Amino acid sequence: MPLGVSFFFIFKEESILNHETIQKEIIAAVHRAKEDCPLVPSITNTVTIELVANAQLAAGGSAAMVYLPDEGEAIAAAGEAFYINMGTLMPFYAETLPRTARALQEHRRPWVLDPVGIGIGGLRKGLLQCFRALPPSVVRGNASEIIALANLWGLDSGVARDGVRGVDATDSVETARPAAEALASFIHGAVAVSGERDLVTDGTLTVRSEGGSKLFTKITGAGCSLGGVTAVYLAETSPFIAALTAVQAYNLAGTRAAREAKGPGSFTAAFLDALYAATPEKIAANPFVVL
Ligand SMILES: Nc1ncnc2c1ncn2[C@@H]1O[C@H](COP(=O)(O)OP(=O)(O)OP(=O)(O)O)[C@@H](O)[C@H]1O
Ligand SMILES: Cc1ncsc1CCO
Ligand SMILES: [Mg+2]
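== Hydroxyethylthiazole kinase ==
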């Protein structure tokens, strides 16, 4: 092989993420989260706040939930990554969320946005418009939320309408792929779309992760807590690997929990146990396909 050609192959192998290199990065991220116990604060909804904190602890992180503007600012600087979930807005969030997002930008802290309930009201819309100029590192949502956010930010989502109804999805994950890729490119980060099969993209590289359980749709907060766990891994690795690691952990733990659960109540407990017990190697070995 001429020297130029072999150099090309070596360069290609080292610089391009493939299935094997992605698995290695997932393993490293899970190890580091458990070793470092990063502080990952959240401003999240009041419905699922406890599940978010418990899932973050199970992944190895340290959780801290705040509501007030000055506390959001202060803890944004103290934390290593951050999670903002728009589920249950209150009037003072008009001040808390922009001030926290500005502090995150100033201190160069990566953060995850879950645009829950996009489309419900004016404050939510205004705050999400404000985040266009203060972008997160990862957007995590169900298919309808991802399509709606791409449309709100004027990106080419591939779907003109948005099918959000309350906080649940009415679109398929595959339908949201163009919106997810456009959003990920726009934020120079990653987007995770949840559903029966999850999609994770950095705008160029798109991966589909399999597993989980239908029982996830019978509890509230599986998606919210997935966002919180993504933020834990974001303290340790790139947006794309963080988003995929969390998705892989959820699909593995969800599959295992469903084997023992009798219904939504026992599923939630079995899921937290399985998330806590999930090894880096098993998380990386959960089935995923590079599309
Ligand atoms: N039909 C399904 N089969 C398997 N796993 C699923 C299914 N639907 C959702 N999940 C999993 O459930 C988790 C949450 O995804 P979901 O799309 O329900 O989020 P969400 O609608 O934002 O949830 P919430 O707003 O209640 O927190 C993800 O890990 C996803 O893979
Ligand atoms: C049910 C619900 N309502 C507002 S936030 C939330 C949690 C799921 O997104
Ligand atoms: Mg949700």
